[in-house]
Amino acid sequence: MNMKSKNNFEENVLAWIQKKKQIEGKLSTSKKPAVPLGDEFERVREHLDYFVDSVAYLNARRTKGGIFVVRSEADVQDLLFVMLKSSFPSLIFEDPDSKGAASYAIKDLYFPMSKIVLEAKYVSHSKEVKSIEKQLHDDIMKYSGSKRCNTIIFFVYDPNFSISDRRLFVDRMSQEKGKFMRDGRQITITTIIKPM
Asked: Does the predicted model carry a pTM greater than 0.90?
């Protein structure tokens, strides 16, 4: 290769690298969310409908591999994260939110694009129901005070049907958009019990 063609080759490679960087720069700054923001809430709710099916599958696996049982709040959180992460890549597990100099709240699961907080609860027996209700009330006050929260979804897994009046529980612990205001902001609160 003579000197002139070598210089042309190097110039072409450098031009190609520059062009590639420009394209990558444009793509990285103009990334669009994987899920349209207005649809994310409904898509999350749809996914939650399959939680019990996922638990059933894990309990009846064909292989003798690792068994995953759902017997605690942490188990519910883990399974929800695994179920949702591939459809919602921006999903964050245990996202801390500063509440001031000395305290912070940790959201179980957080969807930053639409500012949805997903809190998981597990009820193992009827004695826990009052405690769970108090936790939900406390969570409402914790999360609704943050500008990083527009929607709270409480997902309550109650495999033993410990909550006797499920419809009443859902009605008491939910607020439609526009019904609950905090610092001039509308917060939607949705409660889902599975199995229903």
From this structure: no
